[in-house]
Design brief:
Elements lengths: L1 E8 L17 H13 L6 E2 L8 E10 L6 H10 L5 E9 L11 E9 L13 E2 L6 H8 L4 E4 L14 E12 L2 E8 L6 H14 L6 H8 L14 E7 L17
Helix pairs in contact: 1-2, 3-4
């Protein structure tokens, strides 16, 4: 039987999602250990989107195969009993054998959260990128609209990105201020390595007034990562959800996570 799970995690203590050969803490390994105890046999989980060190998630989806008969409630509660406080399973459900958490996805959503105030916050530490200089969220939103659509995002991907093609379709991008918090929300058919953090870095430069609103377009047109600006820190990045064909009936991610 194939089972899908919804997973949320604070990535601060982990070296990213993917299990590492040298045994450093990872979200994947920690989750696999917990779910394997519920299944009473070793298993591997496949995720919708791998995240880097320090990146968080509240809309991650995974799948695994097991012949162990367990109710949906037992998969959730049993896993959570064996998980640390910074990882939790939010739902579980049987899915068809052709469901694949990664390859069945038709879209993914990320959020990048910035704390924009003069002094640092104890409560937002490691959960948002602190920027003490004023940011113009409206200018950031306007600048980002040139990225919506199908483009060559070579300037917005990591130099070591292994994707075969830099072409991606950004379906939506919005920047909204909630008091001292600024949220960048992006949706696409798929993302390149560091793509969201590089978009955030460009828009932060615009928001500070260091670059004009045309900067996002200029970087896009370079098609060269070495001319693409600063990669924003991982603290503020959240894997926010995945879109699948309706036939799989995968629960929708939280509409706004922890933000208004």
């Amino acid at each position: 039987m194939r089972i899908a799970l919804g997973v949320e995690y604070n990535g601060t203590a982990y070296h990213g999602w993917q299990a590492q050969k040298h045994g450093v803490p990872s979200v994947q390994h920690t989750l696999e250990q917990a779910v394997s105890r519920v299944a009473a046999h070793p298993l591997r989980v496949v995720c919708a989107g791998r995240t880097d060190r320090g990146v968080h998630g509240f809309g991650q989806v995974v799948h695994f195969d097991s012949a162990s008969p367990r109710t949906e409630h037992n998969w959730v509660m049993g896993s959570n009993v064996n998980l640390p406080d910074d990882i939790s399973v939010t739902w579980a459900k049987p899915v068809p054998d052709d469901f694949h958490a990664r390859f069945s996805a038709t879209g993914r959503h990320y959020r990048y959260v910035m704390l924009n105030r003069r002094y640092r916050s104890a409560l937002w530490a490691n959960r948002a990128t602190w920027i003490h200089t004023p940011l113009d969220a409206d200018a950031m939103h306007r600048a980002g609209q040139v990225l919506v659509g199908e483009h060559d995002f070579s300037s917005y991907r990591a130099l070591g990105c292994q994707a075969k093609s830099p072409i991606r379709t950004l379906e939506s991008l919005r920047v909204v201020r909630h008091g001292d918090v600024i949220e960048l929300a992006v949706s696409a058919n798929a993302f390149l390595h560091h793509m969201v953090r590089n978009i955030a870095g460009v828009l932060i430069a615009v928001g500070r007034g260091d670059q004009p609103e045309s900067y996002a377009r200029e970087v896009l047109d370079f098609k060269d990562r070495t001319l693409g600006g600063v990669t924003a820190p991982p603290d503020g990045l959240y894997f926010a959800g995945v879109r699948y064909p309706d036939r799989f009936d995968i629960p929708a991610p939280p509409a706004a996570g922890f933000l208004p």
